[in-house]
Write a structure and sequence with these properties.
403 residues, mainly alpha, 17 helices, extended
Length: 403
């Protein structure tokens, strides 16, 4: 049998509530010392009681210097609303409401219209509904209209109920269906994200596969880690605290073929840095592989041959213009090829792609230098590469006025 957390409302308390709530509102708490403000509001709503006294417009939890500091933390230091809430000892929603409502006027937006009681007027509600119909995010509506997150959610629920009763289509999802951290996820999406984490994938890979924002994936992962910890379990490749030690997939991985080729080049007395550069392996990783190979040979009573240093080689081969990848972006692009190809195939594919790209650039440069024929110009216009100017200024035909 369940135990009630609070005592039942007595007849005397209900009489006081019906008599004084319409004129005093939540200030009736002085007459009901055993009831909280929230309990009074909930009971009055159940009884259908409404207030008739004048209330001031709602205020945020942060005011004055605290509000200025919160805006500075958000705008200058780019802190999250959760971090700002922890800094001031309030919840994330209160920090978000305070900052966005203050920034509404500062960024040149017109706040939603309110009456003397602080409630939204029909004009303000109409502006908010128009933003909802446009599919704007909740945080964007807060910033443009200066309203709280709870107000946006409540108006969305009311408007959807009204549209449903009229047989109309529901409102578009927030953000137009685009995945972002504030969008509400379905249970199927959450299960899909958790399944990816149980396969040993990281947050970035999970967000890429499921289409869920990275922030939402982080929150789902934190809850999953806590749930598994209560059962005495952990994510694959992670400890009980959720710290990952083994990755299931990563473009930073070194394939077994690369390791084998590096060992072969070390036996051929190729310097470690040159071999790592040729095989698209990080220098630190290459030295670790070299040290492991040296230890393995030492246990067998052998030693790794010393490398041929560049100064002791008389003739240097001409560098390959298409190999190896020259910057981090190209390196990670090549490592993505290694996930589906062998090293030799990926290298050939990479060099062929660069060769074709260079050839296309040369052809385009040559076409730009020579004058195109009339048929070639028509072909470029038909393909949409260029357009035809309707008019252009002929300075030599314009009349001039002598000074």
């Amino acid at each position: 049998m369940s135990i009630r957390k609070t005592a039942r409302w007595s007849a005397h308390e209900l009489a006081l509530l019906r008599t004084h709530y319409p004129s005093e509102g939540s200030r009736i708490g002085a007459r009901l010392p055993g009831r909280s403000r929230h309990a009074i509001q909930v009971k009055a709503h159940k009884l259908g009681l409404e207030t008739t006294h004048t209330n001031a417009a709602p205020t945020t939890r942060l005011q004055g210097l605290a509000l200025e500091e919160a805006i500075r933390l958000r705008e200058t230091e780019k802190r999250s609303f959760a971090a700002i809430g922890r800094h001031f000892g309030i919840c994330e929603a209160s920090a978000c409401n305070a900052v966005t409502i203050a920034l509404c006027v500062r960024r040149g937006y017109r706040p939603a219209e309110r009456d003397q009681h602080g409630r939204l007027t029909p004009e303000g509600i109409e502006r908010l509904r128009y933003a909802l119909k446009k599919g704007l995010k909740g945080i964007d509506i807060q910033l443009r209209l200066g309203v709280s997150a709870a107000c946006v959610s409540e108006q969305r629920r009311r408007y959807n109920r009204e549209l449903l009763s009229r047989g109309k289509a529901p409102l578009p999802p927030p953000g137009g269906g685009q995945a972002y951290s504030g969008v509400k996820l379905t249970s199927a999406q959450r299960k899909q994200v958790e399944a990816c984490f149980m396969l040993g994938l990281g947050t970035a890979k999970t967000a890429e596969r499921t289409g869920v924002s990275k922030t939402s994936c982080i929150r789902i992962r934190d809850r999953l880690v806590r749930r598994l910890r209560r059962k005495g379990e952990a994510l694959p490749g992670c400890d009980a605290a959720g710290v990952r030690h083994v990755h299931a997939e990563s473009t930073r991985f070194i394939t077994d073929e690369q390791r084998h080729l590096l060992r072969a080049m070390l036996f051929d007395r190729v310097p470690v840095r040159r071999a790592a550069h040729e095989l698209v392996i990080g220098t630190s990783s290459a030295y670790r592989i070299r040290d492991a190979l040296s230890a393995e040979l030492a246990r067998e009573g052998r030693s790794l041959p010393s490398p041929r240093l560049p100064g002791r080689i008389r003739a240097q081969p001409m560098p390959d213009p298409f190999w190896p990848p020259s910057n981090p972006k190209e390196i990670f692009a090549f490592r993505r090829l290694l996930q589906t190809m062998s090293f030799v195939e990926a290298k050939a594919h990479w060099r062929q792609s660069l060769r074709e790209a260079r050839r296309a650039e040369r052809v385009e440069a040559e076409n730009a230098k020579r004058r195109l024929t009339f048929e070639e110009q028509l072909a470029r216009v038909a393909s949409g590469d260029v357009g035809i100017a309707r008019n252009f200024v002929r300075h030599h035909l314009e009349p001039t006025i002598a000074a």
